[in-house]
Write a structure and sequence with these properties.
This protein is an alpha+beta fold. The strands form 5 sheets. Strands 14, 15, 16, 17, 18 and 19 form a 6-stranded antiparallel beta sheet that branches. It has a 5-stranded mixed beta sheet with strand order 4-3-2-1-5. A 4-stranded antiparallel beta sheet has the order 6-13-7-8, sandwiched between helices. The longest helix is centred in the C-terminal third of the chain and has 19 residues, at 450-468.
Amino acid sequence: MRIGIFFGGPAREREISYAGGKTAYENIDKALFTPVLIFVDSLGNFILTDESKLYHAGIRDFYPGPAFREGNFDVYIESLQQQLSQAELDELMHGIGTPIQPQDFKKYFDFAFIILHGPNCEDGAIQGLLEWHKMPYMGPGLLGSAVSIDKILQNEQIARANGQQKKMQVVRWEQWNGADVHQVFETAKAELGLPIVVKAPHQGSSIGVAIVKEDSLDAFVKAMNQCFFSLEVKADDWKSWSDVEKHTFAQRIANLDESIGYPVAIQETGEIIYHPIDLLEKLDNYPPIGGKGALLSINAEDQVLLEEFVRGQEFSCGVIQDDDGTVIALPPTEIAKLEEEQTFDFKTKYKLNVTRKFIPVRTTLDNNQKIQYNIALVFEKLGMNAVARIDGFLTPDGCVLLHDPNTLPGMSPTSLIFKQMAEIGLDVTHAITYLIRQSLRERIRTGKDTVHLRVLLADLDQSIEKQLGELVEQTVEFEATQEAYLNARKTFAQLSASGKVKPIAVLTINEEEKYPLPISLLFKDTIEDVLEMVSQPTHPLIVETKEKAKNVTRRFVG
């Protein structure tokens, strides 16, 4: 089966998607599937490309690439859309591959493996496009996707599903822009108390998340503007900055993990600025009204969600399904911050090693079961299927509070969803095969193109069964050092992805002490974690979950 791996996209999380494309490409079972790479640029173009485009530091290094670093600015393609003619854009796209149209997708692949995040990618938009062209795709369908992108709607629907009570408040742009911000802050404090969690409701990867911890109006205004994707520029500050500082400011706006992204609008005039060079010129010559001006992302949020701060153990829990649609909540992962005051934002999640992860949550068996029950219930009641990851808190009094369902979880080799699937016996290659197969099964349930999809599913099942009978075991033996452990993980993954070998990891302490490792121990962060757990009994929750998921595991690993 030809699998179109969609990566990139228009959202602020596109670099996370880019990294996920590499994971999928490297770990997909090459004996079952032929991977076809589809780079989605931030203008919405689909470009058939090759694996060389996966091995750059980031998207901007190959598209638009070094030739377009005018003024020594590193920009995405949207900053050039006013400068390039259609012919020039076509030439640029052909430089990295072949642009293709949705009506032609079936010429190139049979199934769309979507690793795209954020608006237009997780909200049902691309899912609807694919359904229109009768192309099966990975992940939940239209309903589950639409609900999971909207944090305000999520809160309301989760409360209806499991009865949880969590205080929240919504502030619209017209209630904020030009309003008495002091009064907005006072109202928020009265309703929610301090700290206040401030969220951009349609973003993922903790982009647009801030916590106002102190009774500080300045901190509240900064957090609100961050989540509205509005950036204030004071005239006195601008005039005092050196050319280097101005350049750094203009570049930072283009860095999607740091700022609002181009294009930006001058809020007072509505004029749109596409490129950092144009912004520098505008701010040098434009006198901001009242001594300051505001830049607003053209994809700014219209509402901001305020929530009460929940104290407790933070966790994330993946959800999968059995063949008949039965929902299975995986063992939840506790995310423990090494520094108590650290905000779990975008950089914490992806850039810095400031958390430890424990599977399951360090609490009683009953509490872990309660988490799984609520996760499975919300997954089902919110119309999700195939796969999702739902986050939440376990409060000191044992209350489970859920938020932020994620229908297209991030895909690094050690992402939480892969760590949790490893606990039931599936490595990354098996997990990807599960995602393809179960998503195909869920597309059949929609009653669209049913006969064709049943043929695809039957052919895939036949190939999986045949493969299981032909796999040859191969030992991957390694010593108890971090370097050897990481190399063994890499070798294990490569062998598994070949689709011809069943690798067995063996940890060698000495000639007398050799430990065949379960898959789950290949997903720990350090060799110290492995050594700590290698002789420990399996947690009862994991035993229970493996039993619930035994039909899933048996299908893919025998």
